[in-house]
C-alpha cells in the first residue's frame, strides 16, 4: 500500500477547515492544520508535508507571504512543497501574482470538493 500523504491545511475558518479536512481524510490523507501564517511555517519545518492548501487571507502572515517564505527556505524538501492557493478573493490577485509567489495551483471558494480532491491528488502523486 502506498504511504499516506500529509496535507497541511492553512485556513482560519473552522467550518471550511473541518469540511476540507473530512473530505481529504476520506481520501486517506493525513491532515495537519494551521490557523495562521506563523503556524504554517512552524508546521512545515517540523513535519514532512506533501502539499499545502493555503488560504490567502489567513492572519499574522497571509498566504502569499507564507508561500514566498516557503519558496525561499534553505531546505529543498520544504521549498519544493506544492502549494495550492484557496481564496474567495482571487480578484485581488492575478495568475502572475500567484506564479511570482510560487503558488502551484489555485482553487476558488466556495470550494468544489471534487476539484479539491483531484488537485490534491495531482500534486501528491509524484
What's the short story on this structure?
The chain is built from six helices and five strands.
SSE map:
Elements: E1 6-10, H1 14-26, E2 30-34, H2 37-46, E3 51-55, H3 63-71, H4 76-79, E4 83-87, H5 95-101, E5 105-108, H6 113-124
Parallel strand pairs: 1-2, 1-3, 3-4, 4-5
Helix pairs in contact: 2-3
Please, could you describe this protein's structure?
- This protein has six helices and five strands.
- With 126 residues, it is α/β, with parallel strands linked by helices.
- Helix 2 packs parallel to helix 3 (63-71).
- The model has no long low-confidence stretch (mean pLDDT 94).
- It has one domain: Response regulator (Rossmann fold), CATH 3.40.50.
- The longest helix is centred in the first third of the chain and has 13 residues, at 14-26.
- Strand 1 (6-10), helix 1 (14-26) and strand 2 (30-34) form a beta-alpha-beta unit.
- It is globular and about 30 Å long.
What tags apply to this protein structure?
five-stranded parallel beta sheet, Rossmann fold, 126 residues, globular, alpha/beta
Strand order of the largest sheet: 2-1-3-4-5
Task: Indicate the mean pLDDT.
Answer: 94
* CATH architecture type: 3-Layer(aba) Sandwich
The residue fraction in helices comes out at 40-55%
For the largest beta-sheet, the strand count, sense and barrel status come to: 5 strands, parallel
CATH topology: Rossmann fold
Amino acid at each position: 500500500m502506498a504511504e499516506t500523504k500529509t496535507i497541511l491545511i492553512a485556513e482560519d475558518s473552522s467550518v471550511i477547515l473541518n469540511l476540507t479536512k473530512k473530505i481529504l481524510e476520506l481520501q486517506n490523507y493525513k491532515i495537519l492544520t494551521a490557523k495562521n501564517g506563523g503556524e504554517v511555517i512552524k508546521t512545515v519545518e517540523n513535519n514532512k508535508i506533501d502539499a499545502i492548501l493555503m488560504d490567502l487571507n489567513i492572519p499574522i502572515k497571509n498566504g502569499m507571504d507564507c508561500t514566498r517564505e516557503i519558496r525561499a527556505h534553505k531546505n529543498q524538501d520544504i521549498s519544493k512543497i506544492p502549494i495550492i492557493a484557496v481564496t474567495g478573493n482571487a480578484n485581488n490577485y492575478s495568475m502572475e501574482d500567484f506564479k511570482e509567489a510560487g503558488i502551484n495551483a489555485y482553487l476558488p471558494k466556495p470550494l468544489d470538493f471534487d476539484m479539491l480532491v483531484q488537485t490534491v491528488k495531482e500534486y501528491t502523486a509524484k
